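We treat protein structure as text, and this decision shapes the records that our systems exchange. We quote a single record here, exactly as it is kept in our systems:
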Amino acid sequence: MAILKLVDPPVYEKLERERVNPQFYALRWLMLLMCQEFDMANCVRLWDSLFADPYRYEFLMYVGVAIVQQVREEILEGDFAACMENLQA
């Protein structure tokens, strides 16, 4: 969340106000290794980067922020349920 706070303060503040914790949506991303968010070719490319990069955890945080940015407008306009739906879609 620290990266999101720097990159997009309005989205960070909205998620904080709605009490949408990263554990609610990011756990699924990690458990499924991003397979629901990307097509298989991009998943393999992402996995290659994650497993080869010694800074894989930082890289993974940036990927997470990028996914949040994809649904930025929906987050800013929605309530808790809408935020969760868009982050888990």
The radius of gyration is 13 Å. Residues 56-70 form the longest helix (15 residues).
